Amino acid sequence: MPLKDLPPDAQPREKLLARGPAALADAELLAILLRTGIVGKGVLQLADELLAPPAQGGFGGIAGLLNANMAQLSRIKGLGPAKRAELVAVLELARRALAEQLAERAVFDSPAAVRQYLQLHLAARGHEVFAVLFLDSQHRLIALEELFRGTLTQTSVYPREVVLRALHHHSAAVILAHNHPSGSVQPSRADEALTQTLKSALALVDVRVLDHVIVAPGASLSMAEQGLV
Length: 229
Hints:
Elements: H1 12-19, H2 26-34, H3 43-51, H4 62-66, H5 70-74, H6 81-104, H7 111-122, E1 129-135, E2 141-149, H8 159-168, E3 173-179, H9 189-203, E4 208-216, E5 219-222
Helix pairs in contact: 2-3, 6-7, 8-9
Keywords: Hydrolase, Metal-binding, Metalloprotease, Protease, Zinc
Family: Belongs to the UPF0758 family.
Protein name: DNA replication and repair protein RadC
């Protein structure tokens, strides 16, 4: 049903203005961003299809959609250049907002924001990515850098490179992070060994490893909270 045929209080934009964004379902919020559907498909139906599980041709929810790259979005009928740009812009704004938050106060004040920030950057990647959050002496964010890609082991992540980047940023501490494309956030034996190797290497230049966070779409795990750092 076209939006114009819905009762006024059921139309997403009017519903948001009257009741606030929390009252809207994911598809309704997405419909506001998309604004229009395509011939034969209303905007709410288009939004539902975009959020459907991957097995049904969708992106598996809001996180999957917003983490999709331009090439993936361009394959979806009804997502023209303007709509693709808007979706990518929303994700980038979310990243920058969280980065500002982490740069203004110690990461320990907002562990949930750290995990959200890392999920926005890494969770939807189809391959493993190893990244490092470099922190100042008050544990505020200096920078996030993706350093390695591919299967992560002690031999594929070079401690020397991590140490050099920490020295470059004059870091006092770091948070290690990587994604599991499989969807599981449970640390492997290789993850545990890599953490200890990097912890020892960084200790030589007086840089603390505060945590190693593993992320996947919709999930994250702190190895420090598990007693593994």
